[in-house]
Amino acid sequence: MSHTLFIADLHLSPTRPDITDCFERFMHKEAINADALYVLGDLFEVWIGDDDHSPFHQQIKAAFSAVTEQGVPVYFIHGNRDFLIGQRFAKETGVTLLNELECIDLYGTPTLILHGDTLCLEDVDYQAFRRKVHQPWLQRLFLCLPLTWRRKIAAKMRAGSANANQQKSSTIMDVTPQEVQRQLDKAGVVNMIHGHTHRPHIHQWHQHGTAYQRIVLGDWYQHGSVLVCRQQGCDLQSRDFAN
Ligand code: OKV
Ligand code: MN
């Protein structure tokens, strides 16, 4: 019983070798020594199907295989970008896919883990987009298309969304506090870990005399961001790209 690692929002892509290098270093040097690794979504900037076997994807998958083959359990929750990661990816890497909301036992502390996009109810455009692309029939249809078509459709969708996001205020992009409380109360726990908002912080508050904690993971845009949890508690840390 040593420590458990959490990461999210790496947004890995072939255009950012600095992030990829930092991630590979993290996997080979750190994840290998952990009790478990949880990836809470948006590992990839783009995911259009497990059949996309580009050299870049093979390289990232190899990093996961190396860790799982050493006996370290690796768990993955979908983000809003890589929600199409499927059982084929899981089989190729040894990673276990989890549901969008899970309650885990973190050294005796029940903890709710999720990507975090489902907490941002004020971003109504995104919630509508999510409902659409999470329809199983639409996903099956999309995955039947040739990879070249899927690449084109995905690029068009990303270009459209980059435009829309420039207009949105920071409150709209953050979590809805009432939804955080509702999810915790529904699960009957007082601890939550998520990513998505790119605002790393350990929030603590009281409600009706009960102490609550919500840990937000950071993104990997300017440095790596890692949550290290032990029996005694959790620590939000960063990792330099240059090393
Ligand atoms: C991921 C986001 C693009 C946000 C398309 C059905 C449909 C899946 C898809 C295509 C796009 C993921 C898979 C991507 C996230 C965007 C733009 C905005 C806000 C269909 C199922 F509808 F075409 F049939 N996609 N890609 N966005 O490029 O990775 O999260 S993506
Ligand atoms: Mn996200």
What does this protein look like?
It is found in: Cell inner membrane. One of its GO terms (cellular component) is cytoplasm. The protein has a single domain (4-120, 175-239), classed as Purple Acid Phosphatase, chain A, domain 2 (4-Layer Sandwich), CATH 3.60.21.10. Helices cover 37% and strands 23% of the residues. It has eight helices and eleven strands. The strands form two sheets. A six-stranded mixed beta sheet has the order 4-3-2-1-10-11. Helix 1 packs parallel to helix 2 (55-69). The model has no long low-confidence stretch (mean pLDDT 96). The structure holds ligand OKV and manganese (II) ion. The site of manganese (II) ion has 8 residues, from loops.
Please give the structural blueprint.
Blueprint: E1 4-7, H1 17-29, E2 36-39, H2 55-69, E3 74-76, H3 87-93, E4 96-97, E5 101-106, E6 109-114, H4 124-133, H5 136-144, H6 147-166, H7 170-173, H8 177-187, E7 191-194, E8 201-207, E9 210-216, E10 224-230, E11 233-239
Parallel strand pairs: 1-2, 2-3, 3-4, 6-7, 7-9
Antiparallel strand pairs: 1-10, 5-6, 8-9, 10-11
Helix pairs in contact: 1-2
The structure holds ligand OKV and manganese (II) ion.
Overall SS class: alpha/beta
List the domain count as a whole number. 1
Oligomer type: single chain
Radius of gyration, taken over Cα atoms and rounded to an integer in Å: 18 Å
**Terminus-to-terminus distance:** 29 Å
GO molecular function: manganese ion binding; UDP-2,3-diacylglucosamine hydrolase activity
Subcellular location: Cell inner membrane
Pfam families: Metallophos
InterPro entries: Calcineurin-like_PHP, LpxH-like, Metallo-depent_PP-like, UDP-diacylglucosamine_Hdrlase
